[in-house]
Specification:
The protein is mainly alpha-helical. Helix content is 70%, strand content 0%. The protein is built from 22 helices and no strands. Helix 6 runs parallel beside helix 10 (218-230) and helix 14 crosses helix 20. The radius of gyration is 22 Å and the shape is globular. It starts with a helix and ends in a 15-residue tail after the last helix.
């Protein structure tokens, strides 16, 4: 019994050390006591930032030739956290940012709303846990493949190079390997499923706060928890992907929305006539964090990264078209945000890591040829509407398509947040339904699974739009009202 309790405590301590402490410390170093991010936001984003931070810590270990043992892993993560805390204490007397006057009100929920949020989260966890209890042994070979490389990392005390196999990416395995080294937990246990379930849950919570920020409406955000968490808690890419060990997709569905979250915070006011000094400073930090998360995404899953780039291309084109008359002012604001030490420093350090310290195995000429071109198999020729209905659910498909129409013809198309959701949903729909238009040669069903998250957001807004009543919830920001 004593050994069991000790192993459990060690496992939970490893989870906190690897998946929460680095991100929380980084946020303290960056924001200090500022309320630029709410407490709930800090808790959620610290998880994703921890994953990326731990990845970069051990990329540095690999370049320096440091053996990855329990002691060195503990010291490396602790030194990173201590450095961040030291920076935080040095800045205690400085005011990094002023709180957005709407943020506190936006994240202040009524008693009924708070109870409903807790109930939805509890039901999401309960349904997933009941399903996963019967499927601790993976339902596909994906988990076996990934845990092979995780065990390789644990046994050899270094990051694997995969011997030229571009289908595997190191960011998928580092957190599992480090937790395994620190806790001593076996990969032939429930620990990989537990970690992947946490990633999945925090991906849902990230979409919740992203929706809240973009639409400035608590009801819409709560509906997202219903549509993304409870109603489809088991279907792909939710618990089925957790059980199957589809690590890259589950982690991608955390890091991509989180990157979008910080890009939105950075660019939400970019179309205003002139960004004030406080907003400009905040935007620079938000954009630097967005770049940091983007590099983490590129190290974690190539398909998600590929989709991410297509979404951004669509978003930039749409934003320029709908803001054509204001492009001069937008570019002026953009230059003031981008050309800053925070943003450029993060960008170039990321490039140095990417190309000179630890380059992903998929960065090779053949990778591009595999991903683009005429579909080479029937499974890459596009999904039918029946396929999409089976993939993301009939209700979300119908409501999501209505949401695309709603944003395209009714909502403010100059709003960066609305266009972000629109581009996210529309581009993935095109990539999965008609990939030949974009010369995409990738399995259409794998791309189609990514529709669940943006279509859940659109479905939530459509439901609110249809059933809202006069005198309903107050809007929180004139720049984001709809």
């Amino acid at each position: 019994m004593l050994n069991f309790l000790q192993s459990q405590l060690l496992f939970y301590a490893s989870i906190i050390l690897v998946l929460f402490l680095p991100g929380y410390a980084l946020l303290l170093a960056v924001f200090g006591k500022s309320k630029a991010l709410n407490v709930l936001e800090r808790f959620i984003v610290s998880f994703g930032l921890s994953i990326v931070s731990v990845d970069f810590i051990f990329f540095a270990f690999s370049k320096a030739g440091i053996s990855i043992t329990r002691l060195s892993s503990f010291i490396g993560i602790s030194l990173f956290a201590i450095t961040c805390f030291a920076i935080y204490h040095l800045r205690l007397k400085k005011i990094a940012f002023k709180s957005d006057e709407n943020t506190e009100k936006l994240f202040s929920f009524s008693k009924n709303q708070f109870i409903l949020i807790l109930l939805l989260i509890f039901m999401t966890i309960f349904i997933k846990t009941v399903y996963l209890t019967e499927t601790v042994f993976p339902t596909s070979t994906d988990m076996g493949h990934h845990m092979y490389w995780t065990q390789w990392l644990i046994e050899n005390h270094e990051l694997p190079t995969y011997d030229g196999m571009p289908d595997f990416i190191i960011g998928e395995h580092i957190i599992f390997g480090i937790i395994g080294i620190l806790s001593g937990a076996s990969v032939f246990s429930a620990f990989p499923i537990v970690v992947l379930l946490l990633v999945n849950l925090f991906g849902i919570l990230t979409v919740f706060i992203l929706t809240l920020r973009i639409f400035q409406n608590k009801n819409v955000a709560i509906l997202v928890l219903l549509l993304l968490g409870v109603l489809y808690a088991v279907s792909s890419p939710q618990a089925k992907f957790v059980s199957g060990g589809v690590i890259g997709n589950v982690m991608g569905n955390l890091l991509m929305p989180m990157a979008f979250y910080f890009y939105y915070l950075a660019f939400s006011n970019i179309s205003t006539q002139k960004i004030n000094a406080v907003s400009k400073k905040s935007s620079r930090i938000f954009l630097a964090i967005a770049f940091f998360l983007t590099f983490g995404l590129f190290y974690t899953h190539h398909l998600t990264s590929f989709i991410f780039l297509f979404i951004w291309a669509f978003l930039i084109a749409a934003f320029m078209v709908f803001n054509f008359k204001n492009l001069k002012n937008i570019f002026s604001n953009l230059m003031e945000i981008v050309f800053s030490p925070q943003v450029l420093g993060t960008f170039f350090v990321g490039l140095i890591f990417f190309f000179f310290i630890f380059t992903p195995t998929y960065i090779e000429g053949s990778a591009v040829g595999t991903a683009v071109g005429a579909p080479s198999k029937e499974t890459r020729a596009g999904l039918t509407m029946d396929n999409l209905k089976s993939s993301i659910g009939e209700a979300r498909l119908v409501l999501g398509l209505l949401g695309i129409i709603l944003i395209a013809f009714i909502l403010k198309k100059k709003n960066f947040g609305h266009l972000l959701v629109f581009s996210w949903a529309a581009m993935i729909f095109i990539m999965s339904f008609a990939p030949q238009i974009l010369f995409i040669n990738l399995p259409s069903n794998r791309i189609g699974n990514y529709l669940s998250y943006p279509f859940a957001i659109l479905s939530a807004y459509v439901l609110y739009f249809v059933f809202r009543q006069k005198g309903g919830e107050e809007k929180y920001s004139s720049s984001n009202n709809f």
